[in-house]
TrEMBL record:
<dbReference type="Pfam" id="PF01368">
    <property type="entry name" value="DHH"/>
</dbReference>
<dbReference type="InterPro" id="IPR001667">
    <property type="entry name" value="DDH_dom"/>
</dbReference>
<dbReference type="InterPro" id="IPR051319">
    <property type="entry name" value="Oligoribo/pAp-PDE_c-di-AMP_PDE"/>
</dbReference>
<keyword id="KW-0378">Hydrolase</keyword>
<feature type="domain" description="DDH">
    <location>
        <begin position="18"/>
        <end position="161"/>
    </location>
</feature>
<dbReference type="Pfam" id="PF02272">
    <property type="entry name" value="DHHA1"/>
</dbReference>
<dbReference type="GO" id="GO:0008441">
    <property type="term" value="F:3'(2'),5'-bisphosphate nucleotidase activity"/>
</dbReference>
<dbReference type="InterPro" id="IPR038763">
    <property type="entry name" value="DHH_sf"/>
</dbReference>
<protein>
    <submittedName>
        <fullName>Bifunctional oligoribonuclease/PAP phosphatase NrnA</fullName>
        <ecNumber>3.1.3.7</ecNumber>
    </submittedName>
</protein>
<dbReference type="InterPro" id="IPR003156">
    <property type="entry name" value="DHHA1_dom"/>
</dbReference>
<feature type="domain" description="DHHA1">
    <location>
        <begin position="238"/>
        <end position="321"/>
    </location>
</feature>
Length: 323
């Protein structure tokens, strides 16, 4: 059950919090997590940013002043966990020990596949981003407490998540409320120019080297399905990290007549992350769910524990059944 006021009472009622998100951090992941992180600090709470993964290069500007811990580095007891933008409890990027030993788990998320795994949940699959949900929560907190919470730092974090999850307001998930939120965040001082430059206009040279190699693997099936494969050898050869090539996914979708785009990234032997995108009518979240993944109607993902060749074949067969 969604109840913002109950979550606000919980945020006020405890002292020690872990904020975290899903594996393979992205803009909405980091933006929403930082929004809650800084809000809790303003409430005088002990808050720790804990995640067992690396921040993508183009988003590091957001966390320059934040101490990010791994599960092994966190030693406190009696803490509460707030999981943001994570549609599946199994994808929370913390150790099982930290998750299971938490005295309370709150989930704030916008994935349709979310099964309300938290003790408290704020889930809205129609929201443009988890950052939009955090924005709603913080606006309500400001109303209740009669204090200013959203400052330039929080506005910048939330605006980053908003523009990355809406494709800079181009995706179908963009609603009037998203544009209104964007306006309000800009009025609060969100550093729009910095966000656009760092997120969309600062890809390293190696990104374009691997992009060229990746495009050589482009395969189009029945003029409606496009796929690109990135192997671990390609990542190593081009000296670029696993989390820094997700932007290549759009190249599979943005082809004339293509309805479904697929990016397959080999993390290690027999472990392949699959990103799925669609344009108009295919619900890729259902395809992802068939491989124990999840996501949204137009953007979803899963992990397949097989060779990248076999993973590609399995996903293609699943998409062909849907098409």
């Amino acid at each position: 059950m969604n109840n913002i006021d109950n979550i606000i009472q919980h945020l006020k009622g405890s002292n020690d919090y872990i904020v975290t998100s899903h594996i393979s951090p992205d803009g909405d992941n980091i933006g929403s997590t930082l929004g809650i992180y800084y809000a809790l600090k303003k409430l005088g709470k002990n808050v720790f940013y804990v995640i067992d993964d690396n921040t993508p290069q183009n988003l590091k500007f957001l966390v320059e002043d934040v101490e990010i811990l791994t599960s092994k580095e966190f030693e406190l007891e009696g803490y509460c966990v707030i999981a943001l933008d994570c549609g599946d409890k199994n994808r929370i990027c913390l150790s099982d020990t930290l998750i299971n030993n938490a005295k309370h788990l709150t989930c704030i998320d916008h994935h349709a596949s979310n099964d309300y795994y938290g003790n408290l949940n704020y889930i809205d699959a129609d929201a443009s981003s988890t950052c939009e949900l955090v924005y709603n929560l913080l606006v309500r907190l400001e109303q209740i407490e009669q204090i200013d919470i959203i400052d330039e730092v929080i506005a910048t974090a939330l605006y980053t998540g908003l523009v990355t999850d809406t494709g800079n307001f181009a995706y179908s998930s963009t609603h009037p409320s998203s544009l209104e939120m964007g306006k309000e965040l800009l009025l609060k001082g969100a550093k729009r120019d910095t966000i656009i430059q760092r997120v969309f206009q600062s890809n390293p040279y190696n990104y374009y080297k691997i992009l060229g190699e990746a495009l050589n693997t482009l395969d189009i099936v029945q003029n409606k399905i496009a796929s690109i494969c990135i192997t671990k050898e390609m990542l190593k050869r081009n000296s670029i990290s696993f989390n820094d090539v997700d932007g290549i996914t759009s190249y599979t979708r943005d082809i004339e007549n293509v309805e479904v785009g697929i990016l397959l990234k080999e993390k290690k032997e027999n472990e392949v992350k699959v990103s799925l995108r669609s344009k108009q009518y295919v619900d890729v979240s259902l395809i992802a769910q068939s491989f124990n993944g999840g996501g949204h109607v137009r953007a979803a993902g899963c992990t397949i524990y097989d060779s990248i060749e076999n993973a590609k074949q399995q996903v293609l067969e699943a998409v062909l059944k849907t098409i």
